[in-house]
Amino acid sequence: MNSSAELQAAIPSFVRMAEDRIYRKLRASWQRVVINGTIGTNSRTIARPSDLALTRSLRVVVNGFSRFMQYRESEFLYDYIPAIATTAEPLYWGLGPDGNYLVAPNPDATYSYDFSYYRRLAPLTPSAPGNFLTDNAYDVIFAAAMVNAALFLQDDRTESMAGAYEKLFNERILELNKIEMAVDSDGYEASVTPSPVNAKAG
Length: 202
Prior knowledge:
By secondary structure, the chain is of the alpha/beta class. It has helices at residues 5-25, 74-80, 132-136, 138-153, 156-186, and strands at residues 32-39, 45-46, 52-62, 65-68, 70-71, 87-88, 92-95, 101-104, 106-107, 111-119, 197-200.
């Protein structure tokens, strides 16, 4: 394996790209976070969590019942309720231009909500080289990083190596997601997957 200074300097980028790819593909119960908060007449926004990898759902409590809101593009939200003075029970939500989430119509009262999403862990660094992912699915992050390294080196030998690691990555991601689907359908969580995190919106 090439041990040049250029390759060594690129290793942190290989790892970071591997993490990003895993969080785009993996749907694990240990990633799930539920944030509780309120929206009201003076606020139609929900702050985007800093550790968000992928959104799951937004529910509001209406007359004591929890109801899922429908996701829409921001253009629809602004077209649907063009004037901030127009208020009603909120039905839709979507990502706004500032990166936070908007609801529409503008709330006519204070509503409790819970926002569910998949989180990403803090990035791996030399000072923090391990986390739940490295402890329980090291082969996945290793394979994803090795694909990046092989593509970086760009020669005949590493091209075949990239294909082998790509195959390993896809197989393990599929396996892990199947395990999560089985856990969900059986109504319990395996010992390796801690319960979803619950947080209060700040």
